[in-house]
């Protein structure tokens, strides 16, 4: 006969879950709801933190505002420098033109006696041959540099551009008139470098009164002769 091994004829005992729950202490069951309520209250009192994306947007907006402010400042500085440079260029150009005009005027002023000699030689018929060509070339160069001659007989006397060296009275003029050009005047543009030296004539004193007195005599004397 065979014998069953000992210890294998009984099934292992499995603890009952309900019995285990019943065996828990009452204090543990009471503390669990209190701890849950405290955690819920702490979670309700805490300040909610903004999302990470919103913080990044705020930082980018502040950086963009700072960049725009710096850009506006640099733009204003650039505009100010540009305006100063433009004023500097205009001032330099104006000074350059003024220096050029002064230099040309000084050079042509030194040539005026030579031009006077050429004019006198022409008036006397001595401007002939090679001297004539040289004189004409010199006058052409002076004209290209802006030198212009003025002063003619018969034009009204202007003390701003004429210098009276001779004075007389004439019945042929009604105002102070240049009747003789002793030396022509010269100008460069609107700048007079030498006034015209002239002889002037003024109307004779008392001429209008004498004409008014003689006019009625001629009218009265003409009647009997016609009759």
From TrEMBL:
PROSITE patterns documented for this protein: GRPE
Keywords, alphabetical: Chaperone, Coiled coil, Cytoplasm, Stress response
Signal sequence, start to end: none
Compartments where found: Cytoplasm
Biased composition (Low complexity): 25-47
Subcellular location, principal: cytoplasm
Record flagged with keyword Chaperone: yes
Function: Participates actively in the response to hyperosmotic and heat shock by preventing the aggregation of stress-denatured proteins, in association with DnaK and GrpE. It is the nucleotide exchange factor for DnaK and may function as a thermosensor. Unfolded proteins bind initially to DnaJ; upon interaction with the DnaJ-bound protein, DnaK hydrolyzes its bound ATP, resulting in the formation of a stable complex. GrpE releases ADP from DnaK; ATP binding to DnaK triggers the release of the substrate protein, thus completing the reaction cycle.
Family: Belongs to the GrpE family.
PANTHER family: GRPE PROTEIN (PTHR21237), GRPE PROTEIN HOMOLOG, MITOCHONDRIAL (PTHR21237:SF23)
Subunit description: Homodimer.
Record protein name field: Protein GrpE
Organism of origin: Streptomyces millisiae
Gene encoding the protein: grpE
């Amino acid at each position: 006969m065979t014998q069953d091994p000992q210890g294998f004829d009984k099934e292992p005992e499995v603890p009952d879950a309900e019995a285990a729950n019943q065996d828990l202490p009452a204090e543990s069951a009471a503390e669990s709801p209190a701890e849950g309520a405290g955690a819920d209250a702490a979670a309700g009192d805490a300040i909610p933190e903004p999302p990470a994306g919103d913080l990044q947007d705020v930082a980018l907006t502040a950086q963009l505002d700072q960049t725009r402010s710096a850009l506006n400042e640099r733009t204003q500085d650039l505009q100010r420098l540009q305006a100063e440079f433009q004023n500097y260029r205009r001032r330099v150009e104006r000074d350059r033109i003024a220096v050029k005009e002064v230099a040309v005027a000084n050079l042509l002023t030194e040539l005026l006696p030579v031009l006077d000699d050429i004019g006198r030689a022409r008036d006397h018929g001595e401007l002939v041959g090679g001297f004539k060509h040289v004189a004409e070339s010199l006058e052409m160069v002076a004209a290209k540099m802006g030198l212009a001659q003025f002063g003619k007989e018969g034009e009204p006397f202007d003390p701003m551009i004429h210098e009276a060296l001779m004075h007389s009275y004439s019945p042929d003029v009604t105002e102070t008139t240049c009747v003789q050009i002793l030396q022509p005047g010269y100008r460069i543009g609107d700048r007079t470098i030498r006034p015209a030296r002239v002889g002037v004539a003024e109307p004779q004193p008392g001429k209008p009164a004498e004409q008014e007195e003689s006019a009625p005599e001629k009218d009265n004397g003409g009647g009997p002769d016609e009759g």
